[in-house]
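User: Sequence recovery, please. Input:
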């Protein structure tokens, strides 16, 4: 039985499996039980999941973990393991590493989205990457520096949430600022965008 943990994302692949991204690794439910599925060199914390239009499962990992109390009523322990972040794609029974493409082992992937052209956008601790035939770094303005914690697909590009606010990145590379305040989550609805902040829910539309 997998260790108790915090679930950070859910996804279902076309074969019927339900996948759980948890702070203690990737879990898979087959309708009868739950199994722990190794990713990379072990069971890194998984932050985000995405099933693309081809039915492949994309797995964003980071360096965190959660340990349950060793004594009844004791505290949970949350910490970080360095060098455990990255991006993996699972196609059937095969899993391969996609990021980091630049040899840095410490990439931690926080968010995922599929672009209209089929490429995968991955938000990391220091910017975004577009993953197609080969990974390429996305050019974000200086105000968007830092962790890209939220991504959502727009009809003509991508919504990007960072500590510097929310940005809209169009297919031609043009980037505009939508909100200077960071948000907890993003959700696209056609050409509109829902923004979740601490105190309220907002809808942005052109």
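Assistant: Recovered sequence (206 residues):
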């Amino acid at each position: 039985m997998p260790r108790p943990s915090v679930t950070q994302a859910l996804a279902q692949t076309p074969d019927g499996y339900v996948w759980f991204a948890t702070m203690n690794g990737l879990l898979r439910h087959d309708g009868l039980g739950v199994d722990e599925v190794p990713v990379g060199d072990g069971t890194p914390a998984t932050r985000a999941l995405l099933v693309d239009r081809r039915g492949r499962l994309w797995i964003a990992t980071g360096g965190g973990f959660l340990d349950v109390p060793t004594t009844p009523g004791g505290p949970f322990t949350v910490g970080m393991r360095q060098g455990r972040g990255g991006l993996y794609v699972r196609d059937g029974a095969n899993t391969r590493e996609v990021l980091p493409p630049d040899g840095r082992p410490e990439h931690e992937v926080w968010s995922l989205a599929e672009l209209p052209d089929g490429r995968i956008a991955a938000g990391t601790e220091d910017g975004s990457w577009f993953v197609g035939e080969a990974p390429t770094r996305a050019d974000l303005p200086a105000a968007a520096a830092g962790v890209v914690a939220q991504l959502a697909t727009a009809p003509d590009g991508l919504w990007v949430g960072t500590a510097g606010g929310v940005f809209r990145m169009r297919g031609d590379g043009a980037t505009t600022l939508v909100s200077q305040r960071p948000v907890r989550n993003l959700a696209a609805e056609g050409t509109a965008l829902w923004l979740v902040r601490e105190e309220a829910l907002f809808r942005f539309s052109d």
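The two ends are 48 Å apart (CA to CA).
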